[in-house]
């Protein structure tokens, strides 16, 4: 067996091993994109935020579906959330003034989406942080059908 054939066989075996292990791992973990029923919260995305006054966006794909409520959860470090703007698939948007200090492990209030369940394209949030540089906050966006 030459070196090229041995390398090809080894590569195929490694790819098969990774594929099998990825599928086993994925099936044991709850998926944020799994279909959930009405009244259940679904994680739509997250963003690790910068220091000082800034804005970030979380994009949501159309396959996520439509939602009637959203909220932001903060992990690792606290932030001061000023506002968020929910952009819908039809081009409209909903501006929400929050003006809330959110400590690590806490969340915003549950925010009702105007109208009935709507498909969200992205959420923009404006915030500032006054924390230690070693602990960047992580902001998670959650939606409820």
Main sheet: strands, sense, barrel: 5 strands, antiparallel
Give the count of structural domains. Answer: 2
**Alpha-beta content class:** alpha+beta
Number of strands: 9
Q: What's the mean pLDDT score?
A: 77
Name the beta content range: over 45%
| Overall shape | extended
CATH superfamily of the largest domain: C-terminal carbohydrate-binding module
Summed up, the helix count is 1
- Please give the CATH architecture of the largest domain: Sandwich
Distance between the termini: 58 Å
Q: Provide the low-confidence segments as ranges.
A: 18-35
What is the succession of H and E elements? HEEEEEEEEE
Helix content: 10-25%
Taking all Cα atoms into account, the compactness measure Rg is 20 Å
Report the CATH topology name of the largest domain.
Answer: Jelly Rolls
- What's the CATH C level of the largest domain? Mainly Beta
Present the secondary structure layout.
Blueprint: H1 3-28, E1 41-48, E2 52-59, E3 66-67, E4 69-75, E5 79-88, E6 93-102, E7 111-112, E8 118-129, E9 138-144
Antiparallel strand pairs: 1-9, 2-8, 3-8, 4-7, 4-9, 5-6, 5-8
Question: Explain this structure to me?
Answer:
The protein is extended. Strand 5 (79-88) and strand 6 (93-102) form a beta hairpin. Strands 2, 3, 5, 6 and 8 form a five-stranded antiparallel β-sheet that branches. A four-stranded antiparallel β-sheet has the order 1-9-4-7, with no helix packed on it. The chain has one helix at 3-28; strands spanning 41-48, 52-59, 66-67, 69-75, 79-88, 93-102, 111-112, 118-129, 138-144. Residues 18-35 have low confidence and may be disordered. The protein has two domains: 1-31; 41-144, Jelly Rolls. With 145 residues, the protein is of the alpha+beta class.
């Amino acid at each position: 067996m030459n070196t090229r054939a041995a390398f090809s066989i080894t590569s195929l075996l490694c790819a098969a091993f990774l594929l099998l292990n990825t599928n086993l791992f994925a099936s044991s973990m709850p998926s944020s994109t799994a279909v959930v029923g009405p009244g259940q919260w679904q994680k739509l995305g997250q963003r690790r935020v910068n220091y000082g006054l800034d804005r970030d966006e979380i994009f949501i794909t159309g396959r996520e579906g439509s939602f009637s409520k959203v909220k932001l959860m903060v992990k690792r470090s606290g932030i001061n959330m000023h506002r968020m703007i929910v952009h819908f698939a039809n081009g409209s948007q909903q501006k929400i003034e929050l003006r809330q200090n959110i400590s690590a492990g806490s969340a915003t209030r549950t925010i009702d989406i105007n109208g009935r369940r709507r498909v969200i394209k992205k959420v923009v949030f404006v915030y500032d942080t006054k924390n230690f540089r070693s602990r960047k906050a992580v902001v998670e966006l959650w939606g409820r059908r």
